[in-house]
Design brief:
The chain is an alpha+beta fold. It contains three helices and 13 strands; from the N terminus they run E-E-E-E-E-E-E-H-E-E-E-E-E-E-H-H. This is NUDIX hydrolase.
Length: 174
C-alpha cells in the first residue's frame, strides 16, 4: 500500500494486487468517511427533497439531505444534524432504512439511510438549498424521469416507497 493523496476529507491509496488470473496489478482505494442520507416525511405523508448545486458535476440536482458522519458521531446523530442544518427540519421519529455502498469498486465508505417521520420546519434551510415538498406520486415521477440521480437518495426513496406501499417497514438494517 502506498499513500497517494491525503486531505482533511479524503485519502487515496494505491495497492499492489494479484488478479484472479495471476497477473499483477494495481488498485486505487478512496477513503472518504461514512455518510448519511435522510428522507423526511411529513405527518400527512409528503416527502421532502432538496435542490442543490453540485460543483463536481457543474449543475443543480434533486436529492435528499446528505452529509458526512463526523468523528465520534453515530450515524443517527449525523442524520439528525444534517437534516436540521440543510433543511431546517426536525422529526419526531427516526427509522433506519439500511445502508448503501455508493461505489464499492474504489470507494471505502458506507452511507446510512434514514427515514425522519413527522418532519416539520423549525428553522430556515441552509443558504443555497431549495426545499421541495412532494407527494409519493411526484417522487416516483421524478425518479422515473431521472431527475433524481444521487445514488443514496434513490436507494432511500425507493426503499421507503416500496415498503410504504406494502405497509411493512424497511427491514434491511433497521
Amino acid at each position: 500500500m502506498r499513500p497517494v493523496y491525503a486531505s482533511r476529507w479524503w485519502q487515496v491509496e494505491e495497492h499492489d494486487v494479484v488478479h484472479a488470473d495471476g497477473t499483477p496489478g494495481m488498485f486505487n482505494v478512496l477513503y472518504c468517511g461514512d455518510g448519511v442520507t435522510v428522507l423526511a416525511v411529513t405527518s400527512d405523508g409528503e416527502l421532502y427533497l432538496i435542490r442543490e448545486y453540485k460543483y463536481a458535476i457543474s449543475r443543480h440536482i434533486l436529492q435528499l439531505p446528505s452529509g458526512g458522519v463526523d468523528d465520534g458521531e453515530q450515524p443517527l446523530q449525523a442524520a439528525v444534524r444534517e437534516l436540521l442544518e440543510e433543511t431546517g427540519l426536525a422529526a419526531s421519529t427516526w427509522t433506519s432504512a439500511g445502508i448503501v455502498h455508493p461505489y464499492p469498486t474504489n470507494v471505502a465508505a458506507t452511507v446510512h439511510l434514514f427515514i425522519a417521520h413527522d418532519a416539520r420546519p423549525v428553522q430556515d434551510p441552509e443558504p443555497g438549498i431549495d426545499l421541495l415538498r412532494v407527494d409519493r406520486g411526484t417522487a416516483l415521477d421524478l425518479i422515473a424521469k431521472h431527475e433524481v440521480t444521487h445514488a443514496a437518495s434513490l436507494a432511500c426513496l425507493l426503499t421507503y416507497l416500496l415498503h410504504s406501499a406494502s405497509g411493512s417497514p424497511p427491514t434491511n438494517g433497521g
